[in-house]
Amino acid sequence: MAKTAYSARFKTLQERYNRGGCTKEQLRQFVSYHVISKAEYKEITGEDFE
Q1: Which pLDDT tens digit goes with each residue over 4-27?
Q2: Is 26 inside any structural domain?
Q3: CA distance 35 to 13
Q4: Is residue 7 within 8 Å of 34, Cβ to Cβ?
């Protein structure tokens, strides 16, 4: 089975979000700057990117 390739900052942003150090709004900005993908946003927050 192939290993999923994540954006370079995915793990850091996921950990920061889980600790309360990053908001959904901030994550939406990272998507708009192409730092993380829409799918990664959903994986981190559990919500679809809109």
Answers
A1: 789 999 999 999 999 999 999 999
A2: yes
A3: 10
A4: no
